[in-house]
Amino acid sequence: MQEQLQAILTISEINRLARLALERHLPSCWIRGELSNMTKASSGHWYFTIKDSAASARCVMFRARNQFVDWPAREGEQIEIRAQASLYEARGDFQLIVEAMRRAGQGNLYETFLRLKEKLQQEGLFETTRKKAIPPLPHAIGIITSPQAAALRDVLTTLKRRWPIARIILYPCLVQGDAAPTQIRQAIAQANQRAETEVLLLVRGGGSLEDLWAFNDEGVARAIAASNIPIISGIGHETDFSIADFVADLRGSTPTGAAQMATPEGGEISRHLVGLSARLSYLLRSRLDAAWQHRDHLHRRLRHPHERLRHQRSELMHLAQRLARSGQRLLLHASTRLNHLRSNLVVAKPSVGSALERLHYQHRRLLESTRHQQTLRRRYLHSLRSQLELLCPHHVLRRGYSIVHTVQGEVVISVDQVRVGQRLRLELAHGQLGVEVNGKEI
Length: 442
Description:
CATH topology of the largest domain: Rossmann fold
Strand order of the largest sheet: 1-2-3-5-4
Structural class: alpha/beta
Distance between the termini: 131 Å
Number of helices: 13
Mean pLDDT: 85
Radius of gyration: 55 Å
Number of strands: 13
Order of helices and strands: HHEEEHEEHEHEHEHEHEHHHHHEEE
Helix content: 40-55%
Oligomer: single chain
CATH class of the largest domain: Alpha Beta
Shape: rod-shaped
């Protein structure tokens, strides 16, 4: 009776429970073995078997995962996969769902990479404060790579397109193999010793971790850090990172990217120069316009000597008239006072003799005072006339000087107002001369 109450499962249900149990109790892990029975389906998924000397397991690596495998997986190779144990429910087959794949032994390399990265980071070799600035307009660019590398052609093409005026110097070295680290260090040392470039490009095309291992060498990292010349790294693809990338002063995602970081865009420089030229022309025109406006203002303020002479002569005549009127007022005032005194004398009937004597005395004093005032006024008038004659241009011309005019009558005060070959007019004390400019001196 108890057996009749137990649930009866279908094959689908039992397979699903088995899959869930596997995925729940057996976490994702790294597995090593030999690759065999490789099939690449039209959907993009990979189906293969991984085996060792005693057992094998079916594997599937979906397209979304296998696109990150950057090396050709071949049957018979020893590989390492990170996989999740599962069950294909439709057939009840045990399988491994592969998340990542690498060549056997690369796991050790990656661990070595991480240990060296942590060591150099603790020493401060990755700090941005110790990294050197990249020159914005380099005259000479050095390239450290293999002469046979495809990356070299891409870098040269980019440099020629973006900054053709730069001188390119190649420091050849191996970029793969056991001898590569030593040659890379020697190339960096040679570039610093010769000191003929302003920036160095350390470049290599893509490859596996093992192919790029020369750039994870500790000696290469320390050579990059010790370089007096700034170094831009361009190693592998955008997803590839090496110790050299962390130590370099700047990292390019690819060799072409490194070449772009080392150079300005020629078109942008040309447009910038055109903009600067236009701004300079505008500023020069503005300065010239302001200078001409100031010159016109000064020219309007400048008065011709003849005009100044006429003005001062007019002032002198006005002063002479004021002097004459002042003398007349003094005489009139004296006469009025004399008449007033005479009237008072008549009223008081003073002694005629003494009155006449006082009258004559006052009359003499009045005449003397008038003559004295007139003398003082004549001396002041003579002084003004002498000063006026000193300011007269003709007085200066009689001493051998001359006034230079253009044919339009403009007074010339600077060599900047005339040009060679221009005709001028010289005004002398007696007459005028026509001349032609043969040269200018400042």
